[in-house]
Amino acid sequence: MTDTAAAQPSDRSLSIMLWLVATGFFMQTLDSTIVNTALPAMARSLGEAPLRMQGVVIAYSLTMAMMIPVSGWLADKLGTKRVFFSAILVFTIGSLLCAKAQSLQALVAYRVVQGVGGAMLLPVGRLAVLRVFPAERYLSALAFVAIPGLIGPLIGPTLGGWLVQIASWHWIFLINVPVGVIGCIATNLYMPDSRNPATAPFDLAGYLLLAVGMVALTISLDGLADLGLQHAIVIVLLVLSFGCFVAYGLHATRAAQPIFSLDLFKIHTFSVGLLGNLFARIGSGAMPYLIPLLLQVSLGYTAFQAGMMMLPVAAAGMASKRAVTRLIEKHGYRRVLVVNTVLVGLMMASFGLASAHQPLWLRLAQLAVFGSVNSMQFTAMNTLTLKDLGTGGASSGNSLFSLVQMLSMSLGVTVAGAILSTFTGLLPQVTETNSLPAFHATFMCVGIITAATAWIFGQLAPEVRATRRKPDPSESN
User: Fold this and answer.
1) Considering only 19-23, 72-76, 366-370, which range has the smallest mean pLDDT?
2) Do 67 and 116 contact (CB within 8 A), yes or no?
3) How far apart are CA 84 and CA 124, in angstroms?
4) Cα dihedral 419, 421, 427, 432 in deg (nearest 10)
5) Which of 212, 227, 452, 200 is nearest to 349 (CA)?
6) Other CB atoms closer than 10 Å to residue 275's CB: what's the count?
7) Which residues have a Cβ under 8 Å from the Cβ of 18 and sit 6 or more positions away?
């Protein structure tokens, strides 16, 4: 049973709490994309190569993936108010430290701090809404909270480029500080506190196995290209990550209350959807990192121009969300996902034809088409994964799904950075002033990886069509 505040909060307090949670979600999603267009400026400031800045993005998304399983348990044990306040405080301190970083290593370390706070903003805030709002107002409240989460990725690249152009890259982090201070004050005054006295013990052994596995996998993939690790160390890390994941599977079969029950994988749509999400999102996670780099490093765009070029991707993506529902109803999940996954891969590979002489209208059209099919992919994958969970597995399944989303985003940037760095060293026509051939080869590889994921969705039963579970409004991407 959940222990909530004795008095029901007033409508004013509830409204302020909604704005507070929505703002936290906005800050979290904004910082997932705002950095991408600022990476070349950061590299110049810190004396690093622009093509070796992926650690700044990886550190944030990987930390968020690692913290997702912990956030709900902490809120149950310590209370939503205390944990949400701590999340905003840590996120704000991490943002301030990022702005003060004097080296790439320091910036990556401070992004980890920022990610610890950012990872708890949405799940804890959403839990607070669930516990305080009456059932009849829950969906509308959650939809309100979700809107800023859609706006954050939409304006992130453009805002990041604009701040770099009018001020410096430091301001993409400094803008979080005043918002964070106000958020801490508002949380202390208006956030109702609730906790669950009957919280089960945390599955520490299972969590450590998953965390070590994720970190080892990420470092091994990035090790050869960016970290300069020897082949033997990379192989050891890959074996370690595989061993940790297998060990977790064995642990989960005998643990009384594992973090993620393996029974979830008995649900056909969930298992196919989750595995498809993991691999398809590697390409989708790579593109927001690669496209601004291509535009600035190889095609001579400013940070602001590169950010503006990302608007067609977001606008076309939002416009196409309704179309995919009709397609699924008519053709079923398997056919839609198999065809659309191949289309997404082809559109990614099409950036391998980019050149300085490409007409602007054609580049804008290319970005818009990619944004459209990529958004349709997200919507179809998300609804497939969550549609048959039911009430029993919804909480655990949704947490595992969120972890996979953040992990695949981290892996996407890791894989893209490793491939780009490899081709930069291998291709003879790549010089210090001409990195375009390396980008061409990288986009081709990312497209092939994504298109190959269609085989996973091909394992779906052909009759899977109707969505039985109404998706959470905040699970749009």
Assistant:
1) 72-76
2) yes
3) 6
4) 150
5) 452
6) 17
7) 129, 141, 144, 145
Residue 188 CB burial class (10 angstroms; 0-12, 13-18, ≥19):
exposed
pTM: 0.85
DSSP label of 281: H
DSSP 193-210: --B-TTPPPP-HHHHHHH
Quote the tokens at residue 375: 């958004």
Tokens read off for 141 = 């409240």
Name the residue with tokens 């994988």: 265
Q: Which of 5, 15, 321 is nearest to 141 (CA)?
A: 15
In the chain the domains, ranked by start, together with CATH numbers, are: 8-201 (1.20.1250.20), 204-258 (no CATH), 261-477 (1.20.1250.20)
CA distance 32 to 99: 16
In whole angstroms, what is the distance from residue 126 CA to residue 136 CA? 16
Q: Structure tokens of 166?
A: 């009018």
197-246, pLDDT tens digit by residue?
A: 777 788 999 999 999 999 998 888 876 555 566 778 888 989 999 999 99
